[in-house]
Predict the structure.
Amino acid sequence: MTRPFAIAIGTIAIVAAAVVVYRAGARPPAFASSVTADAGAVSIPDSATVKDVMAAVIDPAADALWLAVGSEITASATVERAPTSDAEWNALVAQSRTLAAGARALLDPRRARDQTDWRRYALALEAASRVAGKAAAARDKDGLFASGEGIVNACDSCHEKYWTTPAVPGE
């Protein structure tokens, strides 16, 4: 996949997800305010549903990683976007840990839909988040960009099989 094509697909996916969430009136669960990316320390209550984990942990962490690097093509120039400070890179390492914690939370028997495909997709998301974390730790913007494909593939595979309820009634 070429970089401009990947950027376009990633942008379309993010915008589409934002529209779905906006139209569905989704609100993060109450525990969302206690989720921090500091050192990847994430506390997810046992009572949190899959929807809660997605809204409070997985979606924000994945978005932070996806939006951290890329290119924007304007009429006059191509503007590259990437972290510029140790603090920004360290925040992305923490977001990758948060994403991995969210993936592990999906493996909890209270949330897991089954122990086959569900488990495989959650483990793929955890592995992809580790790739992102290694790239961020190495200050590798191209590696971080490339890691987004693994994250989106894990998410898309799971959503294709398990996200059966339309986010917006009537769709």
